[in-house]
Amino acid sequence: MKKTIGLFFTTLCMIGCSTAQPSPSAQEDKKFISAMETNIKMLDTASTAGTYTLLANSFERIGNAENKYWQPWYYAALCYGLMAVNTPDKSMIDPLTAKADEYIAKAIALSNNNSEISALQGMITNTKILVDPISRWQTFSAEAAAFLTAAKEQNPLNPRPYLIEARTKLFTPSAMGGGPDAAKPIIEKALENYTNFKAENRIAPMWGLASTQKLLARINGK
């Protein structure tokens, strides 16, 4: 069982979101939106720690300059979360997720009860398990599940908490309630939500559709 749990969290690849105000518009702050869009576009194709760090620093500068918006801090946290899950050095996971948590705290201060932030908290909390799956699984998996439940309650149409949950289920051993059969209805719900989801503005989190489609194809054996 210990080997199974370890294999699950070694294999699990986390994927790197908004119902709260204020919601910037092009008319309100063109410079802010332009800077955010540029960085978000780069984030979509980022794959190295160096790029993630540069983007996180850029989002932080934007957040400090435009201190009424939660989105820069959200994306900065996402950058560090992605670095944490992709680092081959387990000793770096705690420092990276701690940095992500700092940015999340800033986002929450500007937008509490935010489904997108809660979903990201769930993803980052799951990443912390990778440091020591056997000793951390019970505590952090329950905490991550609570964040994802909150994200669904805060916005039932948000597809991202369902996507994150489905990936977790897929790589969880069937003896522990996971596997393809457990993941399939959750990923189908994520896909349904992507069909109906409308982002509130151009810089709101919109990631995950392609990952959802690939995950469902994998579950279906295609």
| Sequence of secondary-structure elements | HHHHHHHHHH
Mean pLDDT: 88
Q: For the CA atoms, what is the radius of gyration?
A: 17 Å
What does the overall shape look like? globular
Helical stretch tally = 10
In whole angstroms, the N-to-C terminal distance is 29 Å
Structural class: mainly alpha
Question: How would you sum up the major sheet?
Answer: none
- Strand residues, percent: under 5%
Descriptive overview:
- This protein is an all-alpha fold and 222 residues long.
- 69% of the residues lie in helices and 0% in strands.
- The chain has 10 helices and no strands.
- Helix 4 packs antiparallel against helix 5 (93-110), helix 4 runs parallel beside helix 6 (115-128) and helix 5 (93-110) packs antiparallel against helix 6 (115-128).
- The longest helix has 22 residues, at 133-154.
- It is globular.
- The relative contact order is 0.15.
Helix/strand layout:
Blueprint (H helix, E strand, L loop, with lengths): L1 H10 L18 H16 L3 H17 L5 H16 L6 H18 L4 H14 L4 H22 L5 H12 L8 H17 L12 H11 L3
